[in-house]
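Narrative of accomplishments. A recurring question from our advisory board has been how the design workflow behaves on a single, concrete structure rather than in aggregate. To address it, we present the structure tokens for one chain from the evaluation set, followed by the sequence designed for it. No filtering or post-editing was applied between the two.
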């Protein structure tokens, strides 16, 4: 498993990974191009046997906090620690860039992702009413979660 930075050669593989990983509301190519072309964004891509199997991308919110825009792991490789590694790498990069708080948004009913984030030390800070366009498990609400970095 190789963790490395995104290159534009990865874009279609990440579009496909999003579609495979998210039941609802996957980023499409246009969304992903907007995130990766933001000059302030930073990321890691996981590669196995030359194939993209995971990624994480973050964008600064303000001087002290950065937001995890998206994280996904190939469904066939979930629950093997890859998501945790991606989170560690992106949080270390946040610290290196001078951020002290990591923030993210998650669907209220994405219980698996919420369990994952809690395991990483994130706590819910806000309910986001009808934050999402599409329903997932009968809800469009979300949570903002945050973690103080060292
Ligand atoms: C969320 C996601 C990135 C986690 O990646 P992962 O590689 O499977 O996570 P890890 O293997 O590092 O999991 C670490 C811990 O998080 C928790 N966790 C992860 N997936 C979980 C699940 N489906 N249900 C319950 N707890 C879960 C567990 O405590 C797990 O430890 P364990 O396997 O020893 O029990 C991955 O499931 C994913 O891509 N999901 C679809 C996309 C998505 O929902 N992204 C987040 C949107 S906000």
């Amino acid at each position: 498993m190789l963790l490395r930075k995104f290159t534009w050669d990865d874009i279609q593989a990440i579009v496909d990974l999003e579609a495979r990983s998210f039941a609802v509301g996957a980023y499409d190519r246009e969304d992903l191009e907007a995130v990766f072309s933001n000059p302030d964004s930073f990321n890691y891509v996981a590669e196995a046997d030359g194939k993209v199997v995971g990624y994480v991308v973050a964008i600064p919110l303000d001087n002290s906090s950065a937001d995890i825009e998206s994280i996904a792991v190939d469904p066939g490789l979930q629950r093997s620690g890859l998501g945790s590694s991606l989170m560690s790498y992106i949080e270390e990069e946040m610290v290196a860039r001078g951020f002290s708080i990591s923030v993210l948004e998650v669907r209220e009913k994405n219980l698996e992702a919420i369990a994952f984030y809690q395991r990483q030390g994130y706590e819910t800070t806000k309910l986001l009413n009808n934050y999402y366009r599409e329903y997932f498990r009968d809800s469009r609400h979300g949570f903002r979660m945050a973690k103080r970095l060292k």
